[in-house]
């Protein structure tokens, strides 16, 4: 496709940007539209993956038939088979009549499976049969039904990792991934960030009947350097907040910082943080990084207990062992200190200066060490931390699970499962 054809597609589906990777994704979507090949769209949450199945459907021979979008992560595990494939009367409690599933409703058209990585393994088996033979069975029925549906799926998961962990079937992955489309994150789209900001600012100015906001040169620089972990969705939300709440129409750097969730006093924001094993992590992984910090802190405390025990029993203790506990430079994730100042201060509190090592002998018995073990286990329980985060998110959003799940960065179905697990109903 030439540039004018790609631009026409962008105008039709409301896509803003000139990034080459974005243009390539649109080009692939249009080229594959005329076929019936399965397509897997990958990309971070909030990049706009939902636009591409629409492009594929509207440019295919199926465009006059149904297009159904299904959020697999928002459907409870116990009902998803019924939603997708239908059920017969009496197949389970509450099944008072036969029901058509999405694959029956979309026959001849296109079905978009968003968050396909959240599907239970039993449902993955059923989906694989649809892709391979165009066949399925309703819940509670032994009759085989035929369907002619084009399947387009999307996920923000690392599918290779999900396969290695046994959470996703490898054969289904290759069936879905016949044609892969990768949507780039906003932080990699350069000038598109400012173009999108201007588009959203104009839209909200018209919506709320007020002058459009603009940015000072420093605020624009901050906007361009910020990593946007929530991608286009986050940029749109931030622009709307500023448009409504700020009285001044030219936004300064200081005003913009107040709307960015990560506390970053200067404009030199790191785009990525290099972590162990050569892996690259962005700010959207901050929860995982925090968990890693807690794990490391627990390990340090366990090493300290071991050291204290050896001192009490009169065993020789090497200087290297003391240094490994007392020195801050041994932290395996130095970049975390830059991102999480408050956490770093807490980690620093667990360090023991060498001048105080001799005071460790004040612990008089093994019973004291056991008490320390219980204290550490209580403070560093990931389950307690996770439960507390869920409770706070639910309280913040008045028990609206959809918004609480978005705030926590998990699917609604996963949140539903966690609520049951921790007895928060």
How would you characterize the overall build of this protein?
The protein has 425 residues and is an alpha/beta fold. The protein is built from 20 helices and eleven strands. It has helices at residues 3-13, 20-33, 51-58, 80-85, 102-105, 121-133, 159-164, 170-176, 192-208, 217-225, 231-245, 253-257, 286-312, 319-326, 334-339, 341-349, 366-379, 382-396, 401-408, 412-421; strands at 39-42, 67-71, 110-114, 135-137, 144-146, 150-155, 179-182, 214-215, 250-251, 273-274, 280-281. A five-stranded parallel β-sheet has the order 2-3-6-1-7. Strands 4-5 form a two-stranded antiparallel ribbon. A two-stranded parallel sheet has the order 8-9. Strand 10 and strand 11 (280-281) form a beta hairpin. It starts with a helix and ends with a helix. Residues 263-285 and 327-380 have low confidence and may be disordered.
Short précis:
With 425 residues, the chain is of the alpha/beta class. Helix content is 50%, strand content 9%. The protein has helices at residues 3-13, 20-33, 51-58, 80-85, 102-105, 121-133, 159-164, 170-176, 192-208, 217-225, 231-245, 253-257, 286-312, 319-326, 334-339, 341-349, 366-379, 382-396, 401-408, 412-421; strands spanning 39-42, 67-71, 110-114, 135-137, 144-146, 150-155, 179-182, 214-215, 250-251, 273-274, 280-281.
